Amino acid sequence: MQITFFGAAGTVTGSKHFVTDGTTRLLVDCGLYQGLKTLRLRNWRPPPVDPSSLDAIVLTHAHIDHSGYLPVMVREGFRGPIYVTEPTRDLVQILLEDSAHLQEEEARNANREGYSHHDLAAPLYTVADAKRVFDQLVTIEFRKPYSVDGIGIEHTPAGHILGAGSVRLSTDRTSILFSGDLGPPDDPIIRPPEPPPAADWVVMESTYGDRDHPPIDPIEQLAQVVDRTLARGGKVLISAFAVGRAQRILYSLGQAFARGLAREAPVYLDSPMASDVTELYLHHHDFHKLSEEDTRAMCRSATFLRSREDSQTLNGKREPCVIISASGMLSGGRILHHMKHLIRYPEHTILLPGFQAPGASLLAGAKSVKIHGQRFSVKAEIALLSTYSAHAGQSALLEWIGQIPEPPRGVFLVHGEPAAADCLRLEIADRHGFPVRVAEDRETVDCLAPFGNEVRD
User: Fold this and answer.
1) What fold does the segment set 2-211+390-456 form as a domain?
2) How many CA atoms does the CB half-sphere of 292 hold within 13 Å?
3) Whole-prediction pTM value?
4) Which of 30, 73, 178, 245 could, after both became Cys, cross-link 167 (CB 3.0–4.6 A)?
């Protein structure tokens, strides 16, 4: 088999890994580039492989940086099955339609307000394109092997979000394990990743490869930020991925109020997608830790805002409150409209719960930020809660790869910023002695060649 890295190499987004054994052609993950404009522009390149030539696409999980390019592939000719777990199927349908709505809305706004650099802005794909994907989703079960034209495939739980898995591909000659995104072992809602199965090669995420999450109670830390903001009469705007992070924040806010750690205030979940996703937790109890009672309490802990009109009214409300809004990468959606209203005033707080590259400049002390073609001064408090990441920290990543039954022939690190990936490379080599290096964008690896001699241009 051969692997070509067409995304998430040297960055944390746009995961696409092309695998072929000479006759069968698979894509493991099919993600959209998010975040910085230089990355988002890559979404407009032609598909990295001929979509009609693929036999199947296999998803590790539903996040847009792993699934969001599917509408382009289907529109351009992919007609094969897309293998997903049951929760991933449900999440993908919500996320893709929302992603398309968001792109259509951003194009309309750009054309109306004149901040597009093109004569007429257009979405990368439409809602109709997104819905065409749904008929090709095929559900599979964890730990139940299946095959595509001679390549065996098996998913094992990876934590992270509902339905997320690691994917092992195998033939009679070699095997490759794709970690997908690995969750932390102590997530209050999602069960931890299972140990990796044996594999000759491992393609492993490295988002937090250079650091651990602080050993502090995330509920207490969240409560401190919320309470001090409410005390000065401000609003807390929380940037959260609709899947995983939004639900963990809802759960934590409920716990913080119940334990008296923060004064109570209205909580608004301003994301139709996050609202739909939260309700999915009621239907997939086998994939998370919460009891049915706790799940229902989480769903009741906030006012779910679905219409644009309801969202806009928040900016006219003066009373202190907490607003949880998408997108989690600060790259689009309703949160940008809220930021324009709040970031200029010192009583408010913009809260970033976990790594997101576009928020780095705010955390570094940027004096202004550009939103929808306009520049706004930064007066609000900018706070980071790194304990709210759905990714495993460095120690958990090292523990996970260290549990593999037999030493792999090689490990390739993806889905990480260069410094994080290289730090994890050094730690894996030092602690476990496995051959390891950081994958390069668009390189091809021959899995039958010795490690170090396996790359061809």
Assistant:
1) Metallo-beta-lactamase; Chain A (3.60.15)
2) 1
3) 0.87
4) 178
